[in-house]
Write a structure and sequence with these properties.
2 copies of one chain form a homodimer. The first copy, chain A, has 267 residues and is of the alpha/beta class. Chain A contains 9 helices and 8 strands.
């Protein structure tokens, strides 16, 4: 009769989770994991004893290591620097303890535990909801059975789960700094230039969206355009005259050079 | 009886257009303007006598200035450097002649003509179709009636038409170099780093999309994250160790510094 109610997974063991940390990643993971029928968030630990979500029960929060309960997986959603310390202070051994960091190696977790990584590769802001279905999860574990548990948990949240080693993850992280952090700073500069001259920055929004969309269809190398690519010296010099901020000038010069080196133009 | 056939615009003066040039902008403008019921592309001029679209009739192409026909507007979709020369060689005076450049001033067109600008602010690749409805058009003209004609033509193609002066346009163009050209180069670097270490770059696609999408909702300044923003010296130094290419290292250092200056971190 149950089958009439819809999809009933064969193996549906509840995964008991404890989240440690109170930052953006902790909050977003809390919200999405809380919605999963195969996940139970047993408890959350953070020093300040704060709720990760306004709907969370106060009884499930602790700021005392000794009070941390039994669970299948302990998710350390803490800063990279704190992974070693927090995992070392856990009042038990031989449990599955994972971090959520893009750059810390799996070995930054205390070797007293069964170690793993549960890294959602996305940029999280406190205020903005995230569509987790499209967020790639990079999974790593020392033991095969732990890997399967993490894979199941990730796959219940996202369509994109990858087995990624610590070395590969560190490469992804460096790359992400270029395509996300640095790119966002270029957006900040673009907006500042517009604001300073009272031009609405929103005129550039469609260009920005298209720049990002394009590379899912063609190689970014092939998508390169602009005065640096064309070696359009007149325009480059006019732009340099417009820029007053010395940092903006340095960035303009360096990236123009980099594009020209990449595309074999004369400097 | 005609009204039964659908929407019949009240005022529907046909705008007769001649496109000069054979690059990406010329081809894309040809295709979109050709679809408009209020636009007739009378002729196209380019030195190599090439079609702008495989469907175009050969009879509408010329490479001889003297054969250029009568039209309401002449669109110079040529390189910035060629605007002055091509507009100076036109075998008539006092016609509406516009360029499509983001950076050239309106005065780069020969003063023998009624000058204007018809600038679609988007990145065009030969191979990729463009959704013109979302492309902002920046319009400028010396005469009010010319401005109206350009506005009508732009508004038939796009939902976003802006009156933008040459000064404002030059600011937009500098800004666009940062948010489009330089950003695309950062994507190229990110892909190269992944390729070198055999990590699939596609894992970063959702992050790139989200980075671009985010700034339409929050200020890019507020969206800044990453090791530079957190002044996470350990991660920054690990990333620098990973990067071998001297240009990538310089870019990493300069943009890290720029983010820290922007956000008042200690260097």
């Amino acid at each position: 009769m149950l089958s009439f109610l819809g999809f009933v997974p064969y193996f549906c063991a509840m995964i008991r989770v404890i989240i440690l940390g109170a930052g953006n990643v902790a909050s977003h993971l809390y919200r999405i994991l809380h919605q999963q029928t195969n996940v139970e968030i047993v408890q959350c630990y953070n020093r300040r004893n704060v709720l990760l979500d306004p709907m969370q029960s106060k009884a499930t929060i602790t700021n005392t290591y000794k009070q941390i309960k039994e669970a299948d997986v302990y998710i350390l959603a803490v800063s990279d620097d704190a992974i070693s310390e927090v995992s070392g202070l856990l009042p038990f051994t031989d449990k599955l303890v994972v971090h959520t960091s893009g750059s810390a190696p799996i070995t930054s977790i205390s070797e007293q535990q069964r170690r793993g990584v549960f890294y959602p590769l996305q940029t999280f802001s406190k205020e903005k909801a995230v569509n987790f279905k499209k967020v790639p999860f990079c999974i790593e574990a020392e033991q095969e059975s732990d890997f399967k548990l993490l894979w199941n948990m990730a796959a219940s949240v996202s369509e994109k789960v990858y087995k990624i080693s610590s070395l590969q993850r560190s490469i992804l992280h460096v790359s992400a700094v270029f395509v996300n952090n640095f790119t966002n700073h270029l957006f900040t500069i673009g907006k500042d230039i517009c604001d300073t001259h009272e031009v609405p920055f929103e005129i550039l929004h469609p260009l920005i969206q298209e720049t990002a969309r394009k590379i899912t269809e063609i190689n970014p190398d092939q998508a390169q355009t602009g005065p640096a690519m064309r070696n359009d010296i007149q325009t480059i010099s006019r732009h340099m005259d417009t820029l007053e901020d010395p940092t903006y000038r340095s960035i303009y010069q360096l990236l123009t050079q980099a594009i020209q080196i990449q595309h074999g133009k004369k400097l």
